[in-house]
Structures are given as C-alpha cells and as structure tokens.
Amino acid sequence: MFWRKDKKQEAETVVPEPVATQVTLTEPVLRAEPPVREGDRPGETWVSRLGMGLSKSSAKLGQGISDLLTKKKLDQDTLDALEELLITADLGPQTAAKVIADFSRDRFGKDLDDHEIKAALAQSITVILDPVATPLAFERKDEGPFVVLVCGVNGAGKTTTIGKIAHNLQREGKRVAIAAGDTFRAAAVEQLKVWAERTHSVFMAKDTGADAAAVAYEAYEAARNQGVDVLLVDTAGRLHNKSNLMAELQKVIRVLKKHNENLPHATLLVLDSTTGQNAHAQVETFRDMVNITGLVVTKLDGSAKGGVVVGLADRFGLPIHLIGVGEGVEDLQPFKAQDFANSLVGLPPETAKNALKSP
User: Fold this and answer.
1) Are 141 and 149 in contact, with CB atoms under 8 Å apart?
2) Cα gap 239→178, rounded to integer Å
3) From 302's CA, which of 160, 260, 274, 314 has a CA 20 to 30 Å away?
C-alpha cells in the first residue's frame, strides 16, 4: 500500500532513514493461472515470436541483401555495401567491419545466393553474440532471497521487465517479491503494484518520496522472513540529474550490503533498443555508477534497430540475459545467440541449419 501527498505536503516531507518506517507489504492474491494479457499469443513458440518481433530489422537487412546481389560473385563492392547495410541496422561501424571480415573469410570471389549470404552473416554475428548469451540463474545463494537490482532510464521498460521476470519465475514455482524503489514516481509504484497482483508476487512499497535505500533494506528483511526466493528491486532512472541518481543507487547498494556483503546478487540494466546507438551511452553511464552484471534489451519489435544488440555485445562484453519483443508476458525470454542472429537477418529457423554451403 502507498499514499499520495499534495504538492505542499510533499515539499515539506523529510526523507526517512532506512530504519525510520516499515515497508508496507501487500500479499499476493492466489489464482490458478496468471491472466493472459493483451498481446499474448498462446501456442506460439519463442522462436516464432522472436522472428516476428525482429521483422522490422530483418526486413531491412533481408531486402538490402537481395537488392545487392545483382551479380553472383562476392566481390569487394558487394562486401562494402553489405558493411554499410549492417551499419544502418545499428550494429555500429566497428562491429559491422568485424562481422564482414569474418563473413568474407574464405568466401571472397565465391558464388553465393542471398539465402547463403544470410546464413553466413548469421554465423558471423553468432560468433560475437555467443560469449554474452548467458542465462541468469535466479537461485538463492544463502539464507535470504536472490536479490536483483533493476536499473535503467525512465521509459526503458523497467516496470514491465520486472513484471515479466516475476511471471516467468512464478511459472517455475518460485516465490517472488517486488520492491518499489523508484519512490518519486507514483505511476511507477502503481504499475508495479498491478504487476505484483498479476504475477501473484508480494509487493513492497513506502510513501511517495521515501528513501529508496529504506525500501530496499526493509524489503530484503521482510522477504527473508517470509521465505521469498527472489526479490526484484526497482530503481529510479532520472538521468537529467546524474549526480543525485548515482548517489541514490550507490546508497541502495551500500545499505543492502548491511544485510549481506554479496548483495545485490545481480544488477541488471534495462535498455530500450529503439534508442539505437544511444543505448551505448546508457551502458557507459550506469556502468560508472554501479557494477552492472548483465543487460536486458527491450522493445526489439518497435524499430529496425535490432542490430544494436550485436554492437553492445561486441563493445562491452556484458552478459545479455533477456530480450523482449512484445507486450505479452511471454515476450521476454532468455537470449540465445544463434536464434537471434538467424531472426535478425531474416533466416527462417527451419532452413537455417541447411542454408550455408561449405566455403
């Protein structure tokens, strides 16, 4: 439960210290199954969802590849044009050059059709993505819950990401708690509460404007006492005031460590793929503030900039745990390098294995 204050009251509010007031808990309402939300597509496989989600990116790349093949042999002009095409898909110049260098090795001057080129490009992209395609195991490491701190700019999709993670964990039989650490945005608290209800999670919040560190500290204590398996902690994302945000995030981590030096167990950065190359700047900014342990890339269905995932993997080498390609609760899933690469270039999964000829 949470309360709103009018502007006059809010201005006079003194931010409490971590032990000043207790976090308010809302117990989950148990139902047989979580409700199906608008945007869910029961019966479809994740690979088919991924292909549809990346359709804007794959259409751009696929059509571009077809348009380039006015001649059969793979010459330097074709390679240069392919590199430019990858750059327009937001891989970035350095990553595009690396992909083309790997792709062209032992294939220069050979006859390849567009299907074989897509398969070869997918193979070269997979080489970059494989090292960062790391599932996140939400397993308890001690007597308390597995704690995940979720960071990202406002609008990146933190709230829905938390809700979808909670949904997946509940399906695995885990008891989940959600803590509303973005205390200055009442809308964020309200949205998280809705997600907690939908996913049968324990919800933890304090007054609007309360100390985020207090929420995290008390939420962990309550979650541990209730036998929660995973605690998901939302955080603010107000980059217009970077110094304050940095201080707040660092305080949240410092206070959590009073419970256990290993907390948080994971710190995830949620990135909106529609921002393209700006996602690189966000990684740099948040990496300067806290120890980011992994990435979640959302809204891949919203633009033709899916290649940014490849650029992020190449430049930062941070684990990419999850990707999102839609609004449905099933549209956030573990990142798999080969599936993503095939979908990005528009290679149908049933033909991907047999499409590439030996060089």
Assistant:
1) no
2) 23
3) 314
What distance lies between CA 104 and its chain's CA centroid? 31
3-class SS at 332?
strand
Does a structural domain hold residue 177?
A: yes
pLDDT for the residue 56:
72
Domain presence at residue 5: no
pLDDT tens track for 8-62: 333 333 333 333 334 555 554 333 344 434 344 454 665 666 767 676 777 777 7
Q: Could you tell me if 306 and 339 are in contact, meaning their C-beta atoms sit under 8 angstroms apart?
A: no
Alpha-carbon distance 275 to 303, whole Å? 9
Chunked in runs of 10, what are the mean pLDDT values of the chain (359 residues)?
Answer: 36 36 49 41 59 70 73 80 91 95 84 85 95 93 92 93 96 96 88 93 92 96 95 90 89 96 97 92 93 95 86 97 87 92 81 47
Tell me whether residue 9 is in a domain: no
Q: Which tokens is 199 given?
A: 């996913």
Q: Which domain holds residue 185?
A: 19-28+45-348
Q: What's the CATH code of the domain at 233?
A: 3.40.50.300
Q: Give kind and range of the element (H or E) at residue 266.
A: strand 266-272
In angstroms, the CA 192 to CA 158 distance is: 10
* SS3 assignment for 26-37: ECCCCCCCCCCC
| The three-state (H, E, C) secondary structure of 107-155, written as one string | CCCCECCHHHHHHHHHHHHHHHHHHHECCCCCCCCCCCCEEEEEECCCC
Mark 260-288 as b/e (b = at least 16 C-beta within 10 Å): beebbbbbbbbbbbbbbeebbebbebbee
Q: Does a structural domain hold residue 261?
A: yes
Domain count, the chain: 1
Phi, psi of 44 (to 5 degrees): -85, 150
Interatomic CA distance for residues 302 and 287, integer angstroms: 25
Residue 318 Cα distances to 160, 268, 292, angstroms: 22, 10, 8
